[in-house]
## 1
Amino acid sequence: MKKKYLVIIYSIAIFVFVVLYLSLNKNNVYTTQENIGKKISVIQLDYFDKPGEFNIQEISNFNFTLLNFWASWCGPCRKEHKYLVELSSNSNLKIIGVNFKDDKKNAMEFLKEMGNPFFILTKDPEGKKSVNFGIYGIPETILINKDLKILKKYVGPLSTKDVREIQRIVKK
């Protein structure tokens, strides 16, 4: 009977060891960079400040669009906001804000305090529609051309370097 338990314990130990060993060789880093170069499909986003839905197909009316996912409760969003304000002065670029899992009142206060760089403001109160864009945290920003092709994706707050790169791309 004792020998039977030892065989079971050794079998379980070997199984756990094999599973752990095999998992060491897997790359579990989630990245959405594979979306670069792909076209955005039809995705509906609710307008933030009025009834109705913004259809992502409307982006084809703009030369370049910066789709920015943000929230008032997000510290890094506050850090990058000055760069969005700077980019909003570029006539070749329209910025669409997607307010992510946020309280409307807090979001409005954020924009009143920091400035509103968004040409169009939408919302994703549950965070479910943002997943379709490959968003898994905020802030994230996607640069899209008029053909709805994703040119660049910025994970985390925009930096001075990112702003210069965006300006260089949209100048063409």
## 2
Amino acid sequence: MSSKPSPREILQTLLPHLRVAAGYAHQIQTKIISLPAKETGNNILSAALTDADLSIQILIEVALLGTYPDLAFYGEEYEQSRNTKYFSSTELNTNNYLITLDPIDGTKYYLDGFDNYQIILNILNADSYEAVIALSPAQNCYYYTIKNQGVYRGNLAQDLDDCTPLTITNPRQAILLGWGMAHLKPALQDKYQVIDLENCYSSSVQFPNYNGIFSGDLIGWITKRGKFIDSAALAFMAQENGCIVTGFDGLPLPPLHTCKDYSYDGAIVANSPQVHQDLLAACQKQSSSTS
């Protein structure tokens, strides 16, 4: 029986396939035709479904089943995939890793022709993330982290060992409020540039995605629902790069297996104690005023 692969080994094995996925996404972006909206989508940023979402997930599923057939897998489009039934599980478990995938994080950005969409693949155990890799096809770069080893950046042609530690200088003093967090804007806008996706999103003007915390476009963000496949994974990566990450109660995010529906109930990400204090105070002020 073969030994359990390490997170680095899994990333190294899947990187060539992820490069192909990135090239495909970039190539067809201008030609893409949206499929019918997801029935479960409750806002413009999650409702769109494209050929790219489905095709990229199938590509990664084939790579996983052909290389690591014993690993569990949960992809955003698992309900529509023909391969879901061939994986050992779609759930977190204590015996092996769960691989998760967001084939196009920021589908609406993608459909509107922006360059800040990404492909996010994660390796999880029952309690926490073991590794995250996020590729930005249109920006020709990717970021990855392995637990307790920091965050690295490279161009798409570079292998893991050729990437360099992520450094951010002079980031914009901007805060991103995810969907459903618009009510926090008044408490923050005197001190920061506040981008409220719910009311600010435009199909003609590009706004930062959550990955702006790595490019220097953001110094913090708040999400109402930290999904394992995307924002929660980016929160883990941000934490590995020195950011402060908590729930709305100011406490560390709980073990993954205690969560429901593959998501946290919310998350605050900040690049400094002061920014975190301000974001947390805004959340708690709102909480106390509605209780």
## 3
Amino acid sequence: MWHSVINPVLRIFTRFDRREEELVDVVTTSTTPGDLDAVIDAIDDFARNRKWLMNVGDEKGAILDAAIVRSQPRLLLELGTYMGYSALRTARVMPDQARLFTLEVDPVRAAMAQKILAHAGVADRVTVVVAGLGDAMNDLGFETGSVDFVFVDHRKDLYLPDLQRLERSGWLHPGSVVVADNVKYPGAPEYRKYLRQAEGRTWRTVTHHCHAEYQSVIRDIVLESQFLG
């Protein structure tokens, strides 16, 4: 249970030590504008070798990449932009005509993410929305059955309520895919329980065993769930 105490403290500390501002400076000064691969690599290097970042990371990012390639989505939704790392990975592998909308409640982080996305050359295909899902639903105005892929990586206590919001919205269609990070560490037990109970009825879920961001000790789980309707 130690990590349930340490992890929130670590996240509070990282919020105020200006590592995000430092990351923006490193990315924009050390990589060529429009070089998406270089930007992703620079963020990985910063998080592994300089200061830890709470983005999905390279190991779990590869799981996200593979899920997007398999599903070939046209409209994607992300809950939790942070510094734009997973949005960058998503833009790199999603189909050319696809569009990603990524939601971030912190306006400062949203602005920094937008700067990184623009530097990487993907701002025309990625829209950052400064809001949580509940507040953004009316403004987004997606058509019924239009959302093909969702990546969930925001507050863990919102995983299940927001999944249920998506179910009620009618945006999902049979075959829509929802990928959730950090289901084991720091953990989203109610979300995991809900999908386990829904297995074979409204959802079909694959469990990916992996490690927490940028280390090889703490175990984590990524859930990849397909909506059955």
